[in-house]
Structure formats: structure tokens, C-alpha cells
Amino acid sequence: MIGKDCVLAMPTYRNDKDYPVSWGAKLWAPGEEKPVPFFMPAALGLVKTSDDPAPAPQVLVSQDVDITGGVPVDIVIPSPVGDLYDLSVIAIAGVGAVSIMGGDPIPLDEHADYVGRIPWGRAPKLTLSSALGGTFRVLAEEVE
């Protein structure tokens, strides 16, 4: 249990821009510095002034996706803290394919799945497809 006088160390960021920067419910005025309980995406342009403590990697996507035959489904991967995420896609039922940022389809079935480390800047989304329909499990996690 944490007492009311206990202060937890958290990553701290400063806004060196001449305009406000926001992420979710957090807002930094120009020159403002504040701690947050998670790392912020580098694309925001905030200056990290402290890393302590290093938050655990986050699950970016974890879902089973049902596909109706012939209708592809796009899955958008939220931005991880760094540029890399680990991706796993498996067929739970049916036969299909995953395409990463419009690349060649990678087959998915009871014998073939996809596991890889992906640079988010090159692949912030993937597309699942199945001619006859199926269910596919997608798991994307930040890389420590």
C-alpha cells in the first residue's frame, strides 16, 4: 500500500516548443515539465528529462478478428514508445493471410502463423483477409 505522502517516480517530460502539446488527457504548456506514468511517443516532440522508473512494455493490440469471406479488415497499431513492436498473428479458425503495409500476403492457417518484430514507422497497420472467412488472433506489443 502506498501512503498519502509517498511520491512515485515517473518518466518526466518538458515541452520546449512555443505552443501547447497534448497526448490523451495530458497537456503541456510551453516550458511546462510534468511526470506521467508511461512513456510518451517521440513524435510529440517532448523532451524526456527523466526515465525513472521504466514502465513495463505495453500491449498495443490484443484481439480476435472475425473476417467475413472476401472482406479484408485493417488493424491499426497504436504508436509504441520506441519504433519497434512484436507482432503475432495466428489463425484460430479458417485460412487467410496478413499483409503488413500493403506487402505480399503472408499465409495463415492451422500450420502457419506470423511472428515478427516490426518497425512501426514503416508498418503502423496490417490487413487481414480470408476468401472463405475465419477468425485470427492479433497480438502487438511494445519492444523493451
Distance between the termini: 27 Å
Under the CATH scheme, which class of the largest domain? Answer: Mainly Beta
Number of E strands: 13
Query: How much of the polypeptide forms β-strand, as a percent range?
Result: over 45%
* Amount of helix: under 10%
Number of domains: 2
Could you write a compact summary of the structure shown?
The protein is mainly beta and 144 residues long. Helices cover 0% and strands 47% of the residues.
How would you characterize this protein structure?
The chain is mainly β. The chain folds into 2 domains: 12-50; 59-142, Jelly Rolls (Sandwich). The protein has no helices and 13 strands. It has strands spanning 12-14, 21-23, 26-28, 33-35, 47-50, 59-67, 73-76, 84-94, 96-100, 106-108, 114-119, 125-129, 134-142. The chain has a 4-stranded antiparallel β-sheet with strand order 6-13-8-11, with no helix packed on it. A 4-stranded antiparallel β-sheet has the order 7-12-9-10, with no helix packed on it. β9 and β10 (106-108) form a beta hairpin. The relative contact order is 0.22. The model is unreliable at 1-8 (pLDDT under 50).
Question: What would the keywords be for this entry?
Answer:
144 residues, mainly beta, Jelly Rolls, 2 domains, four-stranded antiparallel sheet, 47% strand
